[in-house]
Specification:
Among the domains are: about 1-90, Leucine-rich repeat, LRR (right-handed beta-alpha superhelix) (Alpha-Beta Horseshoe); about 410-509, Alpha-Beta Horseshoe (Leucine-rich repeat, LRR (right-handed beta-alpha superhelix)), CATH 3.80.10.10. The protein contains two helices and 39 strands. By secondary structure, the chain is mainly β. Strand 26 and strand 27 (about 330) form a beta hairpin. It has a 21-stranded parallel β-sheet, with no helix packed on it. It has a five-stranded parallel β-sheet with strand order 8-10-12-14-16, with no helix packed on it. The chain is about 5% helix and about 25% strand. This is Leucine-rich repeat-containing N-terminal plant-type domain-containing protein. Its main location: membrane. It is found in: Membrane.
């Protein structure tokens, strides 16, 4: 075995079995490397090499493992790679290789793992893809420029456990016969142009995939699937992670989703889902992330949600949730027991018709990091909403809170001095205009904008030492501007127009 630290690759080594470079080398891979006919393992990854893949490399006919990842390779993958008849592991990820993937690669019967992540490969996968790779277990083609359909012959690669085709331009239907891959554990096909062309509205390929009893990760996000979730979705017995955001999924969330007893993450945001949030979700004791925002869900939030003892992220904003709260039509209630979920750390909900005080129980959430209330009023100008929401002092017991956002709620009163207890606060938004929010998105922020706050700005705000932007426009703040603002060493922007603040500011070096 050869291990080097610095220098250039000079090809002077003799008959070695393994060459692994553990630190930075410079230069190009030399043509002389082809003389290492006994070489079985070559790892030149994560080094300062450059250039193209030398043709002579494929004279190393004993190679079983080849890693040339993240070394700035350019050019194409030579078709001569098919000469490596013993190769089981190929890693060329994080380079700048272009052109089509040579057809010879798909006839290498010994290949178990193909890593081609993050290159610039283009073209289509050959229709006979699955016929020449009987031992293939993992294929990673993420972030390339591949097009065309996913060949149905892939189902012949019966040993496949991982398929990662994300961030390409694959199109056409997702083959139903993927369900024949009994060993499949991860299917990532996100951010492509896959569609469902079945004659029924249900996404039929999902029903076929339920035969993959080992499947734990299914990522479909960012494909125009245009269908409904089948009730057979409840048969994914092993599934841990299901992401189908931004897929134009319609219809209801099947109540059978409550059968996914091993599910940890469910992401269905930014679709066209209708109906109510199914109460059966409360059965998912392992669920940690539930993202349903940006749909057309209606009805009240079921109390059963509060039974999900592992829930950490709950995002339901931008829906049409309704119900009653203290007898007010059009309002909706939040079960107080929701704030007793010790694991809850992110909560984003719709505020339309919300009335009353944020429950005092919120102060019990020691891991709480983000609280976001949004309104649909600005997106539906034909509606008229009135909000009467007050901030419970106990909120400031959430010492881990980094994001606090109340969007267009018409908040009144003063900002409690206890705000200074939020030492990790980075973003406070009390109705910040959308156009300016785009400008400040890259910063850690504090916005108190266009509400009806009055009184003095508490000097304790200086305890929020991570603040870089303070925007207090269009309120009724009065009294002196606290000198303690000068202690905010990370402050980049102070914006305080349209208030009742005295402007006799004195600046000191």
């Amino acid at each position: 075995m050869i291990e080097e630290t610095y220098g250039t690759v000079n090809g002077t080594y003799g008959a070695v079995g393994t060459c692994e470079v553990t630190s930075i080398w410079a230069g190009e891979i030399p043509e002389e490397i082809g003389s290492l006919v006994a070489l079985q393992n070559l790892n030149l990854g994560n080094n300062g090499l450059k250039g193209t893949i030398p043709i002579n490399l494929f004279n190393c006919s004993s190679l079983q493992s080849l890693s040339l990842d993240d070394i700035g390779l350019t050019g194409t993958m030579p078709s001569e790679i098919g000469e490596l008849r013993n190769l089981g592991y190929l890693n060329l990820q994080f380079n700048s290789l272009t052109g089509t993937i040579p057809s010879t690669l798909f006839n290498m019967t010994t290949l178990r793992v193909i890593h081609l992540w993050s290159n610039q490969f283009s073209g289509q996968l050959p229709s006979e893809f699955g016929h020449g790779l009987p031992n293939l277990e993992e294929i990673y083609l993420w972030s390339n420029q591949l097009t065309g359909q996913l060949p149905s012959s892939i189902s012949n690669c019966s040993k496949l456990t991982v398929i990662d085709l994300g961030i390409n331009s694959f199109s056409g239907p997702i083959p139903d016969n993927l369900g024949n891959l009994m060993n499949l554990e991860c299917l990532h096909i996100n951010d492509n142009l896959f569609t469902d062309e079945s004659s029924v509205p249900e996404l039929s390929f999902l029903s076929s995939l339920t035969s993959c009893k080992a499947l734990i990760r299914l990522v479909l996000a960012g494909n125009p699937l245009n269908g409904t979730l089948p009730i057979s979705i409840g048969n994914f017995s092993a599934l841990h992670y299901f992401s189908a955001q931004s897929c134009n999924i319609k219809g209801n969330i099947p109540r059978e989703v409550g059968q996914l007893s091993n599910l940890i993450t469910l992401e269905l945001q930014n679709n066209e889902l209708i109906g109510s949030v199914p109460a059966t979700l409360g059965r998912l004791q392992k669920l940690q992330v539930l993202h349903l925002q940006g749909n057309k869900l209606n009805g009240s939030l079921p109390n059963d949600i509060c039974q999900m003892s592992s829930l950490g992220d709950l995002i339901l904003s931008r829906n049409n949730l309704s119900g009653t709260l203290r007898g007010l039509p059009g309002g909706w209630s939040i079960p107080k027991s929701l704030f007793k979920l010790a694991s809850l750390s992110v909560l984003s909900m719709q505020a339309d018709g919300l009335t009353g005080e944020i429950p005092a129980e919120i102060g019990l959430l020691s891991h709480f990091r983000s609280l976001i209330w949004e309104t649909m009023a600005s997106k539906a100008p034909f509606k008229c909403f009135t909000f009467y929401v007050s901030i419970s002092i106990s909120l400031f017991n959430c010492s881990s809170l980094g994001i606090l956002s109340f969007d267009e709620l018409g908040l009144t009163g003063t900002i409690p001095s206890e705000i200074g207890e939020l030492r990790n606060l980075e973003y406070l938004n009390l109705n910040f205009p959308q156009n300016l929010a785009m400008v400040f998105r890259i910063w850690k922020k504090k916005h108190i904008w266009s509400n009806q706050f009055s009184g003095q700005l508490p000097s304790s705000i200086s305890n929020c030492s991570k603040l870089t932007i303070v925007a207090l426009g269009a309120n009724s703040f009065s009294g002196p501007i606290p000198n303690s603002l000068g202690n905010l060493r990370n402050l980049e922007v102070l914006y305080i127009p349209d208030n009742l603040l005295p402007m006799n500011l004195q600046f000191r070096n």
